[in-house]
Amino acid sequence: MKSGYIAVIGRANAGKSTLINVMVGEKVSIVSPKPQTTRDRILGVLTEDDYQIVFVDTPGIYKARNALTDMMMRTTETSAKSVDYILYVVDGHDGIADEDFELMKKYKALGLPMAVAYTKIDIMPKENIPLDMAKFADSGLDLDVFPVSARKGKNVNALKKFLAEKMPEGEKVFQQDIVSDKSERFMIAEIMREKILLKFDKEIPHGIAIVINTFEQNERGVYEVNLDIVCERAGHKAILIGKQGKAIKEVSSFARQDMEKFLGAKVFLTTFVKVKEEWRDRPALLKEYGYEDLRGD
Ligand SMILES: Nc1nc2c(ncn2[C@@H]2O[C@H](COP(=O)(O)OP(=O)(O)O)[C@@H](O)[C@H]2O)c(=O)[nH]1
Ligand SMILES: [Mg+2]
Known about the structure:
This protein is of the alpha/beta class. It has helices spanning 16-24, 67-81, 98-108, 128-138, 156-166, 184-199, 203-206, 234-241, 246-263, 283-288, and strands at residues 2-10, 42-47, 51-57, 85-91, 114-119, 144-147, 209-217, 223-231, 267-275.
C-alpha cells in the first residue's frame, strides 16, 4: 500500500482547490474566480485499492495584508513542511510568472520532491503549451510537468497515477469512505461563503465570515440551518441584503441548492447579516469564527 501527504501549492486562483476536488471526486474545497477563496488548510482524501493520497489544500501564496491573510500565509508555509510531496499548480491560461519559478525553487530547497500541474489547458491556446513546457525544462529545476484541465478532467488520471507511485509505502491514515478532515458543518459554512464570493465584488466577500448557529436534521430528514453572515461595514450589510432583501434571497437560494446537493437532503436555510468591524484584524474574533492558527503545527 502506498500512502502519503501532498501539499498543493501555488499562486492565488491557480486552480488548486478545483484540481483537488476533481482528484478526490467530491467537493471538499470551495472554488471561485477570486483570490483568498480558501482560508483554511483542508485535507482532501483520495483512496483507491492500492493507495491513499491526502491532498493538503492551502490558501495560496500572496502578500499578507491583515491578521487573517497573515495567518493564511503561515498555514500554507506550515502545511508545505509536513508532507511527503509537493504539487505545484500553475495556471497555464494566465501563464507562468517569474514568481512561480521563485516559489518552486523555494519549495524545492526544502528538500521535498515536486511535480507541477499546469492547469486550465481547456481555455488556453494549444500552441502556448509547448512554449511553456520549454520554460519548465530550461528552468534547471528538473520538474515533472503535467498539463491538465481540472474542469474537463483532462489528463487528471495520469497525474493521479504518477502521484500515487511517488507516495511512500505505508498504511491508510483515513478510512476508505472519508474524503475530508472537515465536518459537514464546516462545508455548509463554506458553501455559503462560496456563493457570496461568486455574487459580490471587491472587498465585500473578503470581509465575510460565516457563523453557523444551528445545523440539525429534523425527524423528517430536513436539515435546519441557521447562520450569520458577518461583514465588516454597515455599507456592506446594505449591499448584501439588497433592495427589499433581493440580494440575500438570491444568494441564500443558490447556497441552499448546493447544500442540498452536498448533504443529499432538503435544507431549510435562514440567514442573518451582521456587522463586526475589522474582525479580520481581531484575534479573538478570528478564533471565534473558526480561523485557527496553524503556526508550529
Ligand atoms: N477553465 C478552467 N477553469 C478552471 C480550472 N481550474 C480552476 N478553474 C477556475 O479558476 C478559478 C480559481 O479556481 P480555484 O480552484 O478556486 O483556485 P485556487 O485559488 O488555486 O484554489 C475558479 O473560477 C475555477 O472555476 C480548469 O481546469 N479550467
Ligand atoms: Mg483554493
